[in-house]
């Protein structure tokens, strides 16, 4: 069992930055794929960014060049640095840990981009 706790969501103006954090209950990063998803009102949950056990990263086209996923193994924490935020980035952001056949989710953190 893995517990994930997200933090860092806030109201920010367009063009601003936020850093989301996802704290895991134990050290899993070398064996689990860690993902950030988001879900906007009335839309399906979408994959935003991924970091694998060996540190490889990938991003949705909509955030490429603006968002960066990273991790601190010593703190059991994954981060999502979000720059140049747009109103369409408004969503609840969820941390996910995946190792077949297991999926663990955090409770989500709200990001609102608005002037």
Walk me through this protein's architecture.
- The chain contains no helices and eleven strands.
- A hairpin with a 5-residue loop joins β5 (46-51) and β6 (57-59).
- The mean pLDDT is 96.
- It has 115 residues and is mostly beta strands.
- The chain starts with a strand and ends with a strand.
- It is globular, with a radius of gyration of 13 Å.
- It has strands at 4-7, 11-12, 18-24, 33-39, 46-51, 57-59, 67-72, 77-82, 91-99, 102-105, 109-113.
- Strands 2, 4, 5, 6, 9, 10 and 11 form a seven-stranded mixed beta sheet that branches. A four-stranded antiparallel beta sheet has the order 1-3-8-7, with no helix packed on it.
Briefly summarize what is shown:
Helix content is 0%, strand content 51%. With 115 residues, it is mainly beta.
Q: Structural class of the helices, strands and pairings?
A: mainly beta
Shape designation:
globular
Arithmetic mean pLDDT: 96
The run of helices and strands is EEEEEEEEEEE
How much is the radius of gyration in Å? 13 Å
| Main sheet makeup | 7 strands, mixed
| Strand composition percent | over 45%
Q: Count every helix, treating DSSP H or I runs of 4 or more residues as helices.
A: 0
Number of strands: 11
* Low-pLDDT sequence parts: none
Give the termini separation. 40 Å
Topology summary:
Blueprint: E1 4-7, E2 11-12, E3 18-24, E4 33-39, E5 46-51, E6 57-59, E7 67-72, E8 77-82, E9 91-99, E10 102-105, E11 109-113
Parallel strand pairs: 2-11
Antiparallel strand pairs: 1-3, 3-8, 4-5, 4-9, 5-6, 7-8, 9-10, 9-11
